[in-house]
Amino acid sequence: MSAVQRIEKVDIDKALKVLDAFGGNALAALRSVIADAEFLYDQLETASFYLSGWIARGWKPSFERDG
């Protein structure tokens, strides 16, 4: 199994676990994932505000994921 196949299998497994957690309700699962992403984005924004000014001067987070 190649690395790409392993990554795709893991991604599919995670997606199925999320879907199973919502009893197969894809809309509810998607809403939850979006809410989690928005929450984590806000947390990253807050952390970047505090870290870039004092602790890790010049550090800038990436707010967009690659690929």
Strand content: under 5%
Structural class: mainly alpha
User: How many DSSP helices?
Assistant: 2
Instruction: Supply Rg.
Output: 17 Å
* Largest sheet, strands/sense/barrel: none
Query: Uncertain regions: pLDDT < 50 for 5+ in a row?
Result: none
Q: What's the order of the H and E elements?
A: HH
What form results from the Cα inertia axes?
flat
Averaged pLDDT = 81
Annotation, overall tally of beta strands: 0
Number of domains: 1
Distance between the termini: 22 Å
Helix share bin: over 70%
List keywords for this structure.
67 residues; 2 helices; mainly alpha; 73% helix
Describe what you observe in this structure.
The protein has 67 residues and is an all-alpha fold. It has one domain. It has helices at 3-21, 26-55. The chain starts with a helix and ends in a 12-residue tail after the last helix.
List the helices and strands and how they pair.
Layout: H1 3-21, H2 26-55
Compact summary:
By secondary structure, the protein is an all-alpha fold. 73% of the residues lie in helices and 0% in strands.
